[in-house]
Design goal:
The structure is a homodimer of 412-residue chains.
Chain A: E1 2-5, E2 17-23, E3 26-41, H1 49-60, E4 64-74, H2 80-98, E5 105-112, H3 119-132, H4 137-146, E6 155-162, E7 181-188, E8 203-208, H5 214-227, E9 243-248, H6 257-277, E10 285-293, H7 296-308, H8 310-317, H9 321-333, E11 347-351, E12 357-362, E13 365-366, E14 381-387, E15 393-400, H10 404-411
Helix pairs in contact in A: 1-2, 2-3, 5-6, 7-9, 8-9
């Protein structure tokens, strides 16, 4: 199996058209593309109207979607019955505009909580966006842009999987057979990010032509979300509006479920990393690997505790290696439900941009943190490995530093 | 029963002598006072040497303490065997200096993690401090000052309880009989504060002359800690060094356990509020009452989630009422283990310094947040009440806002 990155985001998938419009902080995104759909929804106990509505839609349509409409600037959350009516109205408008069944339209929103939607604006913007729908790359880009809120760059990704070509084949003339499978996604999210399926005001729409049934798609999505979006920590807050949708047209080549899972993991991980890199006010992307853990649950809990800690995050912003290590230790210990935590065997190492590796804590003992170690935190991308030393399980998570700009962005 | 605030901190209790010395960021506190002792220790899975050592000491001495030594500037945490030896050495030095049993000396530390203690410095400082021991008020003050780290003010509190005088008695000539009971405490803590018994690099030493047995003292301390320190949230980080010690000389008047509990709650709550007010970089003290909850666990989980949220905290710093309410809602919903969360019956109100009360969310509906509401967040002390509307249980918690200075303090 060979995986290559391709251009075009969701429009890399044949049969998908998209467009978006952003006016001030109010944006509207429309995606057209028919197929089997599965979703992952926020676990917040207070779910926004579009979340409740879209869950219903997937039930009512028998798991089929023909279009997705998403607005930015208003979360349509904590908006009571009027909020539910407005979510439904959005689906009706799309149904009328595109001639698709109302039940096959998913609705998503992101923005401030507690305000009603400006339906006149949405109707007007939809008129423009529906006319702009295109299968060109620019359609995916416009769609990704229109759902941005505090995001500083748009997030998209697409890959082509050739199940029949070995990864290491010498590249001769490009093989472009019908046997390939494409997965493309767009996403938004930079604040209110915490991994408890799913993180927080993160929206992600993924299309594929993989010919798989709903069960395989659903299992693949759960797996990918657990390994990607659920392992991104920006601030530990959980949104009322999180939504990941995966729609498959089924028109691509044959692919096994494990192969598709691998590909979907690649797309979701790339989008998750883009979110972490765009964490509100962030100056550094942190990739954290927790290895040597006793169980998957332990590894994940420990990784999240470290990346959630404001003290660890601000020490990394300050490029203070000694404080960073000490606070990682405290964060590890704060995992009171972890099965096995033995301070005597924990090791912590850092790898910077230029591949220098530095072992800062060696099986329970701090090494000399002066000298070359001082520069290890200077890069814009940081790789931290915490070896718990008690088992064989490892996990990877992504986060960012805590800066003055995080506060600045969130007071406004 | 009548409770009045008195001066003197721990030295308000007869038989207690204290002193402290702070040189740069390295401080040493010594307290002498013999009696039955009970403690509450950090739940962090990685416990600092002084925590492990002091837990042992209480066992070895049969629950009696004669002295407490505490240093600031080095946490003696993640320091292996050498750390344990140094903690023991501190107890030995105090034993030699004061002529008390080594087993009856408690040791506490606060400061950076991963560094060994400078034992020569501690020995020298102890020489000075032991000579300075005094039963005067100044002794308590010096002791409270010497354990400060990022604290901006010292924290102490003392009360006198007269179990036989009605609270509303007209104050005639002051009653100063032997029948009164005194409780005095000092504490430190402003960062790494999170309530999971106990919060984080918080130290608190409480003395009393209440004539109660270890069981009654222990039960009273657990109750008071749950209602006070465990309900303070600054940043959600948990320290490896938290320690609360309660020592009773038993020489005061008779008091029932419920009466003592009430008094101990007053002292612990006052010290907890002082910590929240001194939260790193804080400009506002937040008192949060969660009422109408279905259970104590629900109420506490919800209160902590709200006060832990960086988004809620930065919105309050920015004095943005709309954002504050929306993010409180999201934080409430993030309590996925809470039994009952019904968005349709939640109300949120605010009370400012000048006692103006403003109902911002009325049983699931945002009220008009413009107009007079705009000024409600301007005060330095803020009272927020979240009524879950589903039960009869209430709890109170304390926190602070998230500011640029929090980041500034923690990068250095």
């Amino acid at each position: 199996m060979k995986i290559e990155t391709v251009q075009g985001g969701i429009c890399a998938v044949k049969g998908v058209r998209a467009y978006g419009l952003k006016e001030g902080n109010k944006g509207l995104t429309l995606i057209e593309g028919n197929g089997i759909a599965v979703g992952a929804f926020t676990l917040n106990r207070i779910k926004a109207a579009p979340i409740l509505f879209t869950e219903q839609q997937l039930e009512n349509s028998g798991g089929i979607l023909s279009a997705i409409i998403a607005n930015s600037g208003c979360a349509n959350s904590f908006t009571g019955d009027e909020g539910m009516k407005n979510a439904e109205k959005m689906a009706e408008l799309v149904s009328g505009s595109l001639g698709v069944r109302k039940e096959e339209v998913a609705v998503a929103s992101t923005g401030h909580i507690g305000k009603q939607l400006d339906m006149a604006l949405i109707e007007r913007q939809l008129g423009v966006v529906a006319k702009g729908l295109t299968a060109e790359e620019a359609g995916s880009t416009a769609a990704a842009k229109a759902i941005m809120t505090t995001d500083t760059f748009l997030k998209e990704c697409a890959i082509r999987i050739n199940p029949h070509e070995a990864a290491k084949t010498e590249s001769g003339p490009k093989q472009q057979t019908d046997a390939t499978v494409v997965i493309g996604g767009i996403a938004k999210g930079s604040g209110m990010i915490f991994p408890q399926m799913n993180t927080a005001t993160m929206l992600c729409f993924i299309y594929t032509d993989a010919n798989l049934d709903a069960e395989a798609l659903s299992s693949s999505l759960k797996d990918a979300v657990d390994n990607s979006f659920n392992m991104v920590v920006v601030d530990g807050d959980m949104s009322t509006n999180d939504l990941v949708l995966l729609v498959s047209t089924g028109k691509g080549g044959e692919i096994s479920e494990p192969e598709f899972k691998t590909g979907l993991n690649v797309v979701c991980t790339e989008l998750a990393k883009q979110m972490a890199r765009d964490g509100e006010g962030a100056t550094k992307l942190i990739e954290l690997r927790v290895k040597g853990a006793a169980s998957v649950d332990d590894a994940r809990e420990i990784a999240r505790a470290i990346l959630r800690s404001p003290l660890v995050k601000s020490a990394i912003f300050g490029e203070r290696l000694d404080l960073t290590c000490g606070r990682i230790i405290a964060a590890v210990g704060s995992c009171t439900t972890a099965d096995v935590v033995d301070p005597h065997v924990i090791s912590i190492s850092f790898k910077s941009n230029n591949e220098t590796v530095f072992l800062a804590v060696d099986r329970g003992v701090f090494t000399d943190l002066s000298g070359p170690a001082k520069d290890i935190l200077n890069g814009k991308e940081l790789f931290i490995e915490v070896d718990m030393g008690v088992g064989e399980v490892e996990t990877t998570a992504w986060g960012c530093d805590l800066t003055y700009d995080y506060v600045k962005i969130n007071v406004a």
